Amino acid sequence: MSGRTRLGLGLAILAVAIAHAACATVTREPVVLPRVDESYAAPYDAVWEAALKAVGIVRTVRADKVQGRIETEPYIFRFGFGDDAGQTLLVSLTIAVRPAGDRRTEVQVETRVHEALLTGIMPGPFNNPWTDYLIRLRENLRLRS
């Protein structure tokens, strides 16, 4: 093989490699938002059932009562700001349920943002997936009593 042929072949392979790298998707780790904790004056079993029910129609990846852990698949969460604007996120929740003493149970919710429609706009203190989840959990506990 002549020098020119080798050079041409090498450049062709390099061009294909660059084109392939440019088309490859960039894998990003999800953004983990600060964990939110709440404590309930209820036994573990009651809080576990309310916590699992509060997930609603979102599919769970894991629901392990012994370990006290619920993990959801990513799902779409929308929140608004202003009259006609809104942010759409692809989020998942990791929920830990733990006994915290006599008839008290602690719940920790960690939210992961996998994708965001608008860059840089994250949930605030009032419009967020964990508040929605904890409201449903409290309502489920109230309905049990």
Named CATH topology = Alpha-D-Glucose-1,6-Bisphosphate, Chain A, domain 4
**What is the CATH top level name?**
Alpha Beta
CA-based gyration radius: 23 Å
CATH superfamily: START domain
Separate helix tally:
3
Classification by helices and strands? alpha+beta
Poorly predicted spans? none
Query: If you average the pLDDT, what whole number results?
Result: 83
Order of helices and strands: HEEHEEEEEH
Strand composition percent: 25-35%
Helicity range: 25-40%
Separation of termini?
84 Å
Largest sheet: 7 strands, antiparallel
* CATH architecture descriptor: 2-Layer Sandwich
Q: How many structural domains?
A: 1
| Morphology call | elongated
Feature tags:
single chain, 145 residues, alpha+beta, Alpha-D-Glucose-1,6-Bisphosphate, Chain A, domain 4
Describe this structure in words.
- The chain contains three helices and seven strands.
- The longest helix has 21 residues, at 3-23.
- The protein has one domain (29-144): Alpha-D-Glucose-1,6-Bisphosphate, Chain A, domain 4.
- It starts with a helix and ends with a helix.
- Strand 6 (86-99) and strand 7 form a beta hairpin.
- It has 145 residues and is α+β, with helices and mostly antiparallel strands.
Quickly describe the structure.
The chain has helices at 3-23, 44-54, 129-144; strands spanning 31-32, 36-40, 60-64, 69-72, 75-80, 86-99, 105-116. With 145 residues, the protein is an alpha+beta fold.
